[in-house]
Amino acid sequence: MGNATTATAEPSRGRFAPSPTGRLHIGSLFTATASWLRAHACGGQWLVRIEDIDPPREVPGAADDILRQLEAAGLHWDGEVVRQSTRLARYRDIAHSLVETRAAFPCSCSRREIAADPASGPRGTRYPGTCRTAPRSRRGPHALRLRVSHGTQAFMDQLQGRQACDLATETGDFVIWRKDDLPAYHLAVVIDDAEQGVTEIVRGTDLLEATHPHRELQRRLQLPTPDYLHVPVLVDSHGAKLSKQTGATELRLQDLDAAMARCLGWLGWTTPRDLDGAPAGVLLAAAAGDSRFTALAGVRTLAHSMP
């Protein structure tokens, strides 16, 4: 298919897309705040999407808890909240269209088989192309992988600078549909961002490398290419990313005012004295004109010590 087009500058539209694996912690609030500020800096819109397509990891009630936290923090969204679980048929149709045009193919390989193949690279993570012609096994479930070709592709991240990758060399053909019959993150997020008209994606640097397969899918599907800005991820004293999987403390509603002040501080905004102890929404509104985050240029991680 042809080259991806560039997303238009107007109207600006950002988004925050949490997975309902628990309530927000300060790392996810930091990313949401950065995204909200960027979208509103030029009078744009900010959307919320719930990425609920990984049932084994989801916590009952977490999606509603996240929405309540966002509202309490003053992070109000535009339009309806989209839930990926309602869009499975759409993802499936597009995955099948990629197979029909031979842009994608079924793959029976397990992670163990890929890692054991000498062609998978020193880290055992590069797909060696085993099933490109035909699946290794006709039995059992199959994933779908997008065919990638050699050649370095580059983009300019608005905070992290130039990023370049040859997908064929570094990752190989990547999964767009999982063996458990669910869409892969790469496919679902690219389709949703395009169909929701997202023009700028603000997220953590832990997803910086994911931008390369996302841009490749945009090119193959002839979708607009949004701008990207990756903010640092918060890490603990051991250098591990704060996450629900590593036991990051979930924010209570009464924690949000202080947490918002910290997030805005990391983003380069100094709280005026007369706003010390102000509610989160008041702080956010006061900081709404500042979205350059210049002090974070090239920064991949920020140390966070628990209060």
Strand residue percentage = 15-25%
Q: CATH topology, which one?
A: Rossmann fold
Low-confidence stretches: none
Mean pLDDT equals 92
Question: H/E element string?
Answer: EEHEHEHEHEEEHEHEHEEEHHE
Note the total helix count: 9
Short key terms for the protein model shown above:
307 residues; alpha/beta; Rossmann fold; three-stranded antiparallel beta sheet; 29% helix; 18% strand; elongated
How would you describe what is shown here?
There is one protein chain. This protein has one domain (5-303): HUPs (Rossmann fold), CATH 3.40.50.620. It is 29% helix and 18% strand. The protein contains nine helices and 14 strands. The strands form six sheets. A three-stranded parallel β-sheet has the order 2-3-4, with helices on one face. α6 packs across α7 (211-221).
